[in-house]
Amino acid sequence: xxxxxxxxxxxxxxxxxxxxxxxxxxxxxxxxxxxxxxxxxxxxxxxxxxxxxxxxxxxxxxxxxxxxxxxxxxxxxxxxxxxxxxxxxxxxxxxxxxxxxxxxxxxxxxxxxxxxxxxxxxxxxxxxx
Length: 129
Prior knowledge:
By secondary structure, the protein is an alpha+beta fold. It has helices at 6-13, 17-25, 43-55, 101-107, and strands spanning 3-5, 32-33, 39-42, 69-79, 83-90, 93-100, 114-120, 123-128. A 5-stranded antiparallel beta sheet has the order 6-5-4-7-8. The longest helix is centred in the middle third of the chain and has 13 residues, at 43-55.
């Protein structure tokens, strides 16, 4: 299972490292120490937390020209025989992509994996970060 530093988690959640650190200090997301003494967040815990804060986000989004790359964390993978549905939480944005099962397996995508959703027109493509 992949784990993330506070700084990596902050980037994936679209907040400052100080905000992510305060959330961890308040017990909103569980952390552990790695061998180097860094505070780490398990990928599954970060995925669940990203969905929770996105659901509770009442902030207005600013009007902007949307860029086409959304770095985030995989929050769900539903595998079918041929196709798969992959959900990514990229800060306040939830993106869902239908891709082949083979692509999911080749990229090693699972809940808690870091990934980038790329949007072109109505298609969402996913790259392993």
